Amino acid sequence: MIRSVVRGTGAALPRRIMKNADFEGMVETSDEWIAQRTGIRQRHIAGDDETTASLGEAAARAALANAGLTPDDIDLIVLATSTPNNTFPATAVEIQHRLGMHHGFAFDMQAVCSGFVYAVTTADLYIRGGLARRVLVIGSETFSRILDWSDRSTCVLFGDGAGALVLEAAEGAGTIADRGVLAASLRSDGAHKDKLFVDGGPSTTGTVGHLRMEGREVFKHAVGMITDVIEATFSQAGITAADLDWFVPHQANKRIIDASARKLGIEEQKVVVTVDLHGNTSAASVPLALAVAVADGRIKKGDLVLLEAMGGGFTWGAVLVRW
Ligand code: ACO
């Protein structure tokens, strides 16, 4: 059977780093509060010349270089983002143009923080369905542009950045020993749409709006939803937590990551954590964490890697990949 195998990874971060202490003059908060409640120590914030498209392009170019490929080799670009450059066209199309691609097709996916997990699952289906041979899957966000910088309960949590993977069709035996995407489970439930949302949009206010979140409510649901969808993915693949080499969760809050790993019985040393360095970069958080763990030599060919995310909607999901 056809499998979607990871051929390359890449990442891009804005130049400017904002430390927790930099908030102290802006809102009533402290480095200690932010670090203790979230595990975040710093985040990158996009400058005027840095956008979701420019960061996405840079991450895509890094992933292509890592794969030893050029834009000519790509058939499809799937961009996960909730902070597009424009309401339309899709920012994926702008990235396609920036890469000098005049062939293939490109579109955006919007599942907030779960966007990258949704995008990998979608790209895998396009590959297995024979509609594309090589896909650039990108998560790119500039959440700094939709934050209310006077709201201490949200502005300290998010950052900007982009990460990308190249997925490529390869022949597999149909067992979990294959390399590539092995199992996936996606969920959403719009009953929770008002717990984490942006209070503007083209069809309602005609404005971009600002992020609003009932943090305690999100926290309350997060661990249960994350662990349920991971259990479903494990049972699809016929594995247990002990079979995993790496757990690469959405990087929103270290306490949610720790509680999820504990509940699933995943050992601490198998968990990739970058929330301290990047904050919550929404759809970019999982590919950014992947790029870090691949670059530093932790994730290697043949490793069994579990990706997970949960975000606005609510949306949530998990993907199992043999690297
Ligand atoms: N600095 C200092 N105090 C603060 C800050 C701050 N930055 N923000 C809030 N507080 C205060 C609150 O006002 C509150 O004060 P009060 O007790 O006087 O009312 C107190 O701290 C405690 O607030 P809580 O909200 O109960 O704090 P909690 O321990 O729940 O931590 C947090 C808040 C970090 C937001 C947590 O709830 C959380 O991580 N929630 C989940 C967020 C998340 O994971 N989102 C993921 C999806 S993101 C996406 O999809 C885009």
Automatic annotation (TrEMBL):
Gene name of the encoded protein: fabH
E.C. designation(s): 2.3.1.180
The entry's keywords: Acyltransferase, Cytoplasm, Fatty acid biosynthesis, Fatty acid metabolism, Lipid biosynthesis, Lipid metabolism, Multifunctional enzyme, Transferase
Highest taxon above the source species: Bacteria
Database matches in HAMAP family: FabH
Renumbered residue ranges of the record's region ACP-binding: 251-255
Species in which this protein is naturally found: Mesorhizobium qingshengii
Catalytic-site annotation from UniProt: 113, 250, 280
Enzyme class: transferase
Record text about domains: The last Arg residue of the ACP-binding site is essential for the weak association between ACP/AcpP and FabH.
Beta-ketoacyl-[acyl-carrier-protein] synthase III C-terminal domain span: 235-323
Family of the protein in this entry: Belongs to the thiolase-like superfamily. FabH family.
Beta-ketoacyl-[acyl-carrier-protein] synthase III N-terminal domain: residues covered: 107-190
Location within or outside the cell: Cytoplasm
Pathway in which the depicted protein is active: Lipid metabolism; fatty acid biosynthesis
Subunit architecture: Homodimer.
One Pfam family it belongs to: ACP_syn_III_C
Designated name of the protein: Beta-ketoacyl-[acyl-carrier-protein] synthase III
